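S.,

Sequence below, as promised.
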Amino acid sequence: MSREQKAVDRARKAFLTGRSKSLEYRITQLKNLLRFVKERQMEISEGLKKDLRRSMM
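The prediction came back faster than expected:
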């Protein structure tokens, strides 16, 4: 089984339990995602330009 398939399986199992992470955990994850996007903005922009022939808005 591929690494990606294992990740999907773990996510499905977690979803089916009906339990979710705490609000604090989810907020922290969103803040980390925002920080990552800001740090990688140039790479994201270059990827969009290369793959989709679109520039960052």
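The two ends are 39 Å apart (CA to CA).

Coffee later?
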